[in-house]
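Q: My labmate handed me this sequence with no annotations at all. I'd like to see what the chain might look like in three dimensions before we decide whether it's worth expressing. Could you predict it?
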Amino acid sequence: MTGNGFTPNNNRQVIRMLSKEFGRFNKGRNRILMGAIVLCIITLTMVFGISFGKVQAEYMKAVRAAGTTASACIEDADESQYEKVCSLSYVKQVGRCVSVGTAAFEEQPVCRIQVLDDVAWEKMMQPAYTDIYGQYPKEKQEIMLSVRALKSMGIDDPEKGMKVRLTVTIGLFRTEQEEFCLSGWYSDYVDDTSGSAIGYISEAKLKDWGYSIQEKADLLICQSDNMDWRETEERLYQDVAGKTSELKITVSNTYTYDAVNRLTGSYGMAALGALVILSGMFFLVYNVMQISMTEDIRQMGLLNTIGTTRKQIRKIYFGQIRRIMIPGVLVGAFASVFILVIVIPKILGNQYLSGFGGAKEFRVFRSEFLVAAVVFTITLTMGAAAGVIHHLVNLSCMGSIHYTGLIKNRTSRKKKWGGFGKEQTLIRCKKRNRTVNGELWYMAWQNVTRYRIRFLLTIFSLFLGMEACLGVVVISRGSDYVHVIEKRPDFLIAGEFSDWGQEEGYGNEYKSRDLGEDPMETEGDNFCLLYGNAYDEFSPISSDVREQLLSLEGVDEEKSYVMEGAYMISTISQKGIRPLVSNYFNVEEQVKEGVGYSYDYSMVEGVDADVIQILSEEEITSLSQYVQDNHLSIDMEDLKNGTGVMILHDHQLSPKQEELAKESIGEPIFFTKMLSKEAWILWNQLSSEEWDAMETTEMFSEIQSETYTLCGYLDNRAEGFPNIRQTWHGSEGLIYYLISEKGFAKLPTEKKTLYMELNVDQKKEPQIKTEIQNILSQENRKREEMTGNKVDGETGEAGIFCISKSDLLAEAANYIRGNRLILGSISVVLLFAGVANYFNVMVTEIISRKKELEILESIGMTKRQKRKLLTVEGLYYCLAVVALMLTVGNGILYLIRFYMEDKLSYFVFTYPVGWLIVGIGCLIGICAMIPKMLYIKRDLKTPRPQCIMNSER
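A: Here is what I predict for the chain of 953 residues:
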């Protein structure tokens, strides 16, 4: 072939050579592009990995504290209702659970006994446990226990198959002695009370006892994560219960829903934030390619003029992009893995989430996010490169060589004429005389606005990056866990449950709850609360202690709060109590006249004392406004006038019961004073025969109040319900009454202090805390020495406890520190990405205008003037971004504030002044340093002729 004068066409090698040479020629731009690729991958992997890891960690913490992933429960549902729930589109998982009873070991309570189906165990319970050994029971005599339950039985080293003898109480009257075989054990993280540990048995054993999980069971439900508890509950009542059903449905937010809300406010805000971050990363790469596009088109245009085909041009251009993209992707991927796998866990240590499995449960590195970031970055880079090729294809050879990127103005400038008729003369615009500095500022403005669309997109991208950082700072600071604690009073003081009540696990639930929840919510009723203290003189906080606390130096009485009220036995009409106990009514039974303990009497007397809380004028006003705004059927006038009382409940009524509550308004109710302490002590010592003989004596006579009217029922979990503080509440069998000062004055009892909140001078807080501890210690020792007031004759009276805000902050210090490091790292990486975007714009702009700057130098512009020109150009970008941040940006931050305050009750807005100053400082620093650094580097590489150096001096 060569003998015929034909030269072989080795295009592939030539294309590789040209691609390599073009890459060497554009090495400055390519280094910046590679840095943008690395930063894009790191930023996306870190932001989304950390955010997702944080949500998962919060989810796991909540799940383990609750002991289940289920967020809804339908009690005593049958097979048809189970099938109906399974068919609902918004329900992800449905499991069945039967609570059989309790188990005791050597007469000491050990655990509750439950039976689960496969879904309930594998999907809802198992994720809440760790260190699971063995398997869920399948055989009739198998049982699975928690490590805590085993330790309470004295078993520290359990073995699979070991025998465990337990006394199981089934229902109220049935007891079985059983010898179980241990099939497995697990570690749980729920609050450490006797009633919280669970022992699981098999369905075969349940059938042996005469029950079936298919016939009737509690349905454990995991609903869709994007639905709140109100919407879910409403739809479940509509779809499953119906209007006439007596089903009891309890719903809470899913733990993922709450975790996302704490991080971003809602799924909508999370999606918007993700879109903003992705847009910022798009502009990070796009700006580099867009600014250098003019020079790239000219270079490719030269190849086009000598006959290079479009396909070959694509290969040459994409070849040089691949040469920088591959190492950029590798560096970004390895850096992301190093930061997320080694650096962040090392910084967090093992104290983060220490009570729920430790920091090992916090995994911020997700391989799927890394892959997605790499794919997104590659697609973005190649797409930006394809844009250059697209422009080149649509241009002629000469057009591509002389391409400037400017859009020609098709409208010709009109000359200005003055005068009339034939006297018209051309008016020449007067040339403005500018100083040298003024001319530089004018030239800089003309340069940055030469490509208007590019200028506007660059400004928008810089603003977007900086605003994303500030938005994250506002959200992370405002939702800081410390604000949850800061909403608490400096000191919360209340009466403890009785010793027996605490042994049953009541009154200490707040110790293992999230600090955002009400510490006074409990599952214990007033029988457990007042066991051994059910006499009229008993006050959870004595008057002496109250006066001592309020008189402490540094206590702000105006900002402190004292709740007063009493415990009395209520007697309410059958129609008035029916909303709370409608399941126990038989409509066909004839109503008995008079007062009795059963629900078939016209007036139903309570067995245990109920709490009556006095409302302040401010609380009554806020309740009145709430009732008016929501158009509720509540008689607020009788409450204000002192002739009526209100029942406050913890979302205990179904829709059908809510209708019954509306019908109960105006029903009669009266209260009976509890026995005096003297009568109570004597009553404990009497036999049943002696009690029958003395029941009618004056000491044991009942003192009743006048009759009040029932003003209605209010739900303290309803949306928009005002902040009404409560003492112990939440138990299903507890009735919580609200009354005005006028109404309480008519009761035959004295005011008692039920609850206190003290707010103090922060400088004196440590001293006041010590004094409060001393006061309460003395009072509790005094109460322990009291005799004769217990049911079983033992000594002692229920004490007083205190929750200190400073102690809560100290306990949560590691968790708060971890949160701040996690969310702070997101803010830092976004700030760095925004600043890097500005850096890339500045450097790429200078590199792409190399020839233009050399021409300016050849016509006499000095090095100092060029540096100043470039600095001013950067300053224009900086000023435009700052102006947007201080106007539009501030508006966006305040919109975020209003949105987050609506979503999070504890959100506290703080304007990010420091971050704004740092961001602006970085922009100005880059603006001033980049031109100087580039020219110092150039001067070191290429010494200039002496004549030019002299002329610049």
